[in-house]
Write a structure and sequence with these properties.
- The complex is a heterodimer of chains A (274) and B (373).
- Chain A has one domain: Alpha-Beta Complex (Spore Coat Polysaccharide Biosynthesis Protein SpsA, Chain A), CATH 3.90.550.
- In chain A, helix 6 packs parallel to helix 10.
- The radius of gyration of chain A is 18 Å and the shape is globular.
- Chain A is 41% helix and 20% strand.
- In chain A, strands 1, 2, 3, 4, 5, 6, 7, 8 and 9 form a nine-stranded mixed sheet that branches.
- Chain A has 274 residues and is α/β, with parallel strands linked by helices.
- In chain B, the strands form two sheets. Chain B has an eight-stranded parallel barrel with strand order 1-2-3-4-5-6-9-10, surrounded by seven helices.
- In chain B, helix 1 links the parallel strand 1 and strand 2.
- Chain B starts with a strand and ends in a 7-residue tail after the last helix.
- Chain B folds into two domains: 265 residues, Alpha-Beta Barrel (TIM Barrel), CATH 3.20.20.70; 89 residues, no CATH class.
- Classes of the chains: A alpha/beta (274), B alpha/beta (373).
- Chains A and B meet through helix 9 and helix 10 of A and helix 7 of B.
Chain lengths: 274, 373
């Protein structure tokens, strides 16, 4: 049995998606099944490896983005009763650039080595965090960007919505469409449920922003700057409505408080504290 | 604690008046380029020497709330020391004489920053050795004349890059060890890069952006880590280059545990903008153009420009104008403006002071030093 389900989130970029699929299949096909979610892609822009096609009018118009895409894919696996066969789920966007031949196997090894880690992210060469991951290559954080995350199934089961689940609520709060700070909420839920969120420098992955910067029209998303403006504006509205928070710092403090509590409960993991 | 750069006479008056009115402590943080002793050619702010500046402040600080601090004291921090290409030995002697004058004039907080070296790039241990030398000298001298002083250390400035924990830990280990062996109090403050950097009229560091800055540890990770580190050593965290941060970012400073923050060029730019605005709103375009021209020609704005920036000449002039507030040519044009506005019932300097006051007050309120007014 393959231990990992990998999901590539695609929207109208079949070329990079096919390449990523093939790269993963050749190098890591023995340990992972690979699924492709077409997040409202036009019918002529669908990857040849498409598993699911979210083609409702809203998805066709706006896409799904990372949070709703993750919900959609994971809920589909759950609904199709393929959930329990996996130990972990690796969700990445079609613009992820993997710098080494293998990424999933080393990440799975980290997950095995760190039984309390529920969310694991590869580091990025463009992140300052790499400076903190030299001698100790895996550390636990209260803030991680979400472009390629490996989720432990057990962790997801501790937080997933099982009553009337759908792609708006299964794991992430999909009402925050573009997902600014939704990752911090998920990390808070992890630490609140005695799980940790980690970054490892055993592997690196980069978000190839050129797809957003240069191919915005093709992806049928707003130009990059407009996307970023909306990303922040919507995220801020979301934290205000949901938590009554008026600053991203409040959300960070919220996550950090669970993080600190986690380490009070697990002093033996102090070496991995950031 | 708010550190205010004394950018002009109006700025100094504004800060003192706010401190007096609110019975609230404030710190003046002149660099050696702004105010220095007679020997070093004074500074560009009102051509004050250290003693004149200290006396001016003391005479007006009715509640004794204003702390005088030396920002970035150390070798080659004076224009004169650089211009004369002093040797290390001479530059250190020179820096000591400047510190001595500070102590004599009642400065209570000394930022020891020997990170500049015009001859070569010193190693971290060489910088530390220079810190020990200056620290010991200042402490011994202060003791001998019965002055109580505090120290600030920190060797990074305007990099905008987050301090590496290893380097900071190394420096603080060594400095605290030196203090223990020498029986000198440990520093009160350490300058830590929290992700602030000033360019043009913006804060372009990572602190105030919710987006990731390439190569930077996000401020949401970096700041709590640095606060913890400072706590471990019992030293307060001081942020430099706090200018232009948003209200939201500033309001979080006390809650995040940032104990002190320095703001300087913003106050000079606020005054310059207010000057240009009032001239133009009273149709004194010729005077305004003269002032902008003098400021632009001075090229003092150059150090604040972003590479490849498209800032207009007018903006550049406003950014660099405060450096020439005390130049004869500028004073003459401003006097002319003052006379014309006076006839219209406007007290120009009162207006400029009020503008700077509003800018300083924003920081005081958001740092919870005073209630909202």
């Amino acid at each position: 049995m393959k231990r990992v389900a990998t999901v590539i989130l695609n929207r109208n970029l079949p070329g990079p998606t096919n390449e990523l699929y093939e790269q993963l299949m050749i190098n890591e096909g023995s340990i992972t099944d690979i699924y492709v979610l077409e997040a409202g892609s036009r019918i002529d822009n669908i990857s040849k490896y498409c598993t699911w096609h979210a083609s409702d009018p809203d998805s066709m118009q706006n896409g799904l983005r990372y949070c709703r895409g993750t919900n959609y894919a994971l809920f589909s696996l759950f609904h199709e009763k393929r959930w329990e066969q996996y130990d972990a789920f690796f969700i990445l966007t079609n613009d992820t650039v993997i710098s080494r031949k293998r990424i999933i196997r080393p990440m799975l090894a980290v997950l095995d080595e760190h039984p309390k880690v529920g969310i694991l992210s590869p580091c990025s060469k463009r992140w300052g965090e790499k400076e903190l991951l030299k001698e100790i290559k895996t550390r636990y954080f209260w803030f991680i960007n979400n472009n390629a995350l490996l989720f432990r199934r057990e962790f997801l089961e501790s937080i997933m919505q099982v009553n009337n689940p759908d792609f708006l609520s299964f794991i992430f709060d999909g009402s925050n469409f573009r997902g600014y700070l939704a990752d911090v909420e998920l990390i808070s839920k992890a630490y609140a449920n005695d799980w940790a969120a980690a970054i490892t420098s055993h592997v690196f992955a980069e978000e190839n922003e050129s797809y957003l910067l240069e191919q915005a029209d093709l992806i049928e998303t707003e130009p990059y700057k407009e996307h970023m403006r909306l990303y922040i504006e919507e995220g801020k509205k979301w934290i205000h409505q949901k938590y009554g928070f008026n600053s991203h710092w409040s959300m960070i403090e919220y996550a950090k408080s669970f993080y600190d509590a986690f380490f009070r409960l697990h002093p033996e993991l102090g070496d991995y504290m950031t | 604690m708010l550190g205010v750069g004394p950018m002009s006479v109006n700025c100094v008056d504004a800060a003192i008046e706010l401190s007096n009115k609110n019975n609230c402590p404030l710190v003046f943080i002149p660099s050696r380029r702004q105010i220095d002793s007679e020997e070093f050619g004074k500074g560009y702010v009102n051509k004050w020497n250290t003693a004149e500046f200290a006396e001016y402040v003391r005479e007006r600080d009715t509640n004794g709330n204003v702390v005088l601090a030396r920002d970035h004291g150390g070798p080659w921090q004076s224009e004169l020391e650089r211009k004369n290409r002093l040797s290390l030995e001479k530059a250190m002697e020179s820096a000591k004489r400047s510190f001595k004058e500070d102590i004599d004039c009642g400065f209570q907080l000394l930022h020891i920053d020997p990170s500049i070296d015009i001859l070569r790039t010193p190693s971290p241990d060489e910088i530390l050795a220079r810190i020990y030398d200056l620290y010991e000298y200042c402490w011994s001298y202060a003791q001998s004349v019965g002055r109580k002083i505090w120290f600030e250390v920190g060797t990074e400035e305007q990099s905008g890059r987050t301090s590496t924990e290893d380097r900071l830990t190394y420096d603080l280990d060594k400095i605290t060890e030196f203090c223990s062996v020498s029986e000198i109090p440990i520093p009160k403050f350490v300058v830590v890069q929290t992700g602030t950097r000033v360019a043009e009229r913006r804060n372009v560091g990572s602190f105030d952006t919710p987006l990731r800055v390439a190569g930077e540890i996000p401020a949401v990770i970096q700041v709590p880590r640095m606060v913890e580190l400072c706590k471990r050593y019992g030293i307060y965290l001081k942020e430099h280059n706090t200018d232009y941060l948003s209200d939201e970012a500033l309001s979080w400073h006390p809650r995040l545990g940032i104990h002190a923050a320095n703001v300087a060029p913003e106050f000079g730019v606020v005054e310059s903008q207010a000057l240009v605005d009032i001239l133009e709103s009273h149709d004194l375009h010729a005077v305004s153009n003269d002032i902008l021209q003098i400021a632009y020609t001075s090229k003092k704005w150059q150090k604040w420009m972003l590479p490849g920036g498209t800032t207009s000449p007018r903006e550049r002039a406003i950014i660099g104008m405060h450096y020439i507030f005390s130049d004869r040519e500028f004073i003459d044009v401003k006097n002319e403006a003052r006379r014309i506005l006076c006839k219209k019932g406007i007290d120009l300097d009162q207006h400029l002071k009020d503008s700077v006051k509003a800018a300083i007050l924003r920081y005081m309120v958001l740092f919870r030093l005073v209630d909202k007014q």
